[in-house]
Write a structure and sequence with these properties.
alpha+beta; Actin, Chain A, domain 4; 5 helices; 11 strands; 24% helix; flat; PdaC; signal
Length: 271
């Protein structure tokens, strides 16, 4: 079951016809999509159960946010994600209002701001739900940008746990996984750039990236325990925007299991 909410507003083209006038923000109107239910009023928690998709367009911004059924069916997590939804929507609305005001004051055209967050399941285990999010946003400037997010939900305790918190320390994880990550990153850089990375380079785009500096994901291929570590590296961290993002997956080994905190080792499996 998907609960979809769509809010529409007066097209910006109607405002662009009068660049010298400041139009008032229109009140969004609900556009029901039968047989989907109408939008939940802003600030009102959505009912538990099912996936959720929200899309809201006004004359200053486009906001989209979604999460899957597994998250919507998990008590506590759905509320956590709904809270994040409201925070991101309010941040976007504030940024867009300020951006339009600054554009008007400086005589520049205003381009609609946008924010999109799409959560997906990485691993659904008996006691844990691991999620990742693709995020894209535009706050003015030459082009939009994008990034990643992650969360692991403890089903028994009803709380979120940062993936890095499963390990004894970021330094310990880097000691075990860092060399593999650096080797894989440089191999992929070489493919994209057409030349190997200079080992003596002091360019930040040639430097190794530590596991906790990227977006750390806990994954599973057996549905019983975490046995894969994923790392997503957003643009500008390991290379220029045009080079895109980097994504790698590594198996959980006995060596890596040694740097998992004792209280979480039962959630992992290794050869």
């Amino acid at each position: 079951m998907i609960r979809r909410f769509t809010l529409l507003a007066v097209p910006t083209a109607l405002i662009a016809c009068n660049p010298g006038e400041q139009a008032a923000d229109p009140q969004p109107t609900t556009a029901p999509e039968t047989p989907q239910p109408p939008a939940t009023p802003e600030g009102t928690p959505a009912p538990l159960g099912g996936a959720r998709t929200v899309s809201e367009r006004t004359d200053t911004y486009l906001f989209e946010y979604s999460y899957p059924q597994a998250a919507g069916d998990t008590e506590g997590l759905a509320g956590w994600l709904d809270s994040r939804l409201e925070q991101e929507r309010q941040e976007l609305a504030g940024r867009a209002a300020q951006g339009r005001e600054e554009a008007r004051d400086n005589g520049f055209p205003f381009n609609t701001y946008s924010s999109e967050t799409a959560w997906e399941v990485v691993a659904d285990l008996p006691g844990w739900l691991s999620l990742s999010a693709d995020q894209s946003f535009y706050y003015g400037g030459a082009h939009p940008n994008y990034s990643f997010d992650t969360i692991v939900w403890d089903k028994e305790e009803g709380r979120s746990v940062e993936p890095i918190a499963f390990f004894t320390s970021a330094a310990a994880l880097d000691e075990v996984l860092g060399p593999q990550l650096c080797e894989a990153l440089n191999a992929e850089r070489e493919k994209r750039r057409g030349e190997p990375v200079d080992a003596d380079s002091d360019d930040s785009f040639d430097a190794c990236v530590k596991p906790d500096e990227g977006n750390l994901l806990l994954g599973s291929t057996n549905g019983q325990g975490f046995n894969r570590i994923g790392i997503q590296i957003a643009p500008y961290l390991a290379g220029p925007y045009a080079e895109g993002s980097y994504e790698f997956t590594f198996p959980v080994t006995a060596e890596l299991l040694e740097v998992v905190r004792e209280e979480y080792r039962g959630a992992f499996t290794a050869p």
